[in-house]
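Field notebook, page 331. I keep forgetting to write these up properly, so this time I am using the form the group agreed on. The chain and the ligand, oxa(dethia)-CoA, are recorded exactly as supplied. Prediction of the bound pose follows.
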Amino acid sequence: MHPKRAAITGVGGFVPDYILTNKELETMVDTTDEWIFTRTGIRERRILKDPGKGASDMVVPAVLELLEKTSHTPADIDLLICATVTADRVFPDTANTVCDKIGAENAFGYDINAACSGFLFALYTGAQFVANGTYRKVVVAGVDKMSSILDYTDRATCVIFGDGAGAVLLEAADDDTGIRDAVLKGDGNGRHFLHMKAGGSVKPPTLDTVLAREHFVYQEGKTVFKYAVKGMVDTVTEVLSRNGLPPADVSWIVPHQANMRIITSVAEMLDFPMEKVMTNIERYGNTTAGTLPLCMWDYEKRLRKGDWIVLTAFGGGFTWGSLLLKWAYDG
Ligand code: UT7
């Protein structure tokens, strides 16, 4: 008898309608479509333009789609975990706002802030509650409205990111599918290379911080790039080897969508074919906590029950890791 495991039993997603193309960015900062595409693999990204709308407004449609696809109602949800660095507000959390907006009257929730690894960390957290029998139906969402923290005069950062949300349902598996293992890592020294300078308790917002443009993403891209490739390769290798799974048995790698050159470097170093690596960075850019569920949302139809899948991410913190699962249904 295998131990109880949490399995992903459905995926929902949402991206805003507005498409910000590389061509439009050419009119905003000193950049070119050619530079952006060759250096990052991005052609366009989605932007949530509607005034007064935030992260929860993207999670709501993603979760409603998820519930419809899996024949559930909002009242069925026990717990909703939301991974994000662009919560509706500094507090309260976004997860309980989503529960209120969809009428998930039996649920409680909370947010997890682990930047681009947020969905990975939230997924493994949610899986523990299902595996140990505490809760039966756990929704894990990854969302970011990166456009709310981007400096659209800084070409080094504003071309990379986009807005979007994805969500999965976790339920106990009654077979050998589900989440098997994860290698999750952190190194707080990485905070120097990727952060927002002001707005937190260290440097609360003032007129000066606003004028100094300190409420935007700050990134030392080259350093982050180097650590990202190594972090993802190391943890994919570790999670596979400690589960005795040869890379050839893996059907899909789902990598964080930060830069196509990072993704291809990871695949090359793992000697893993790109045809089995999920990518959608060309259309959505980097949606931070949204990338992993949005990839599964895009590729769901191609997934088969029993597929071995590895999710891997690297992001601010630094945070990184890889998670191994056996897919639970035919997409
Ligand atoms: O998701 C969270 C984790 N984040 C990541 O994993 C991101 C990791 N880093 C990256 O993806 C890349 O480092 C970037 C895409 C951010 C930057 O690419 P890069 O190849 O590392 O470029 P760079 O920063 O070294 O800049 C090279 C040149 C510079 O010009 P000079 O100094 O050589 O004259 C930049 O000023 O490219 C210039 N540049 C641009 N040129 C046109 C930087 N951004 C742009 C731009 N358009 N948008």
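OBSERVATIONS:
- The pocket of oxa(dethia)-CoA is lined by residues 31, 35-36, 39-40, 116, 155-156, 159-160, 221-222, 224-225, 228, 258-259, 262, 286, 314-315 (CB under 6 Å).
- The chain has two domains: 6-175, 179-326.
FOLLOW-UP: compare against the apo run.
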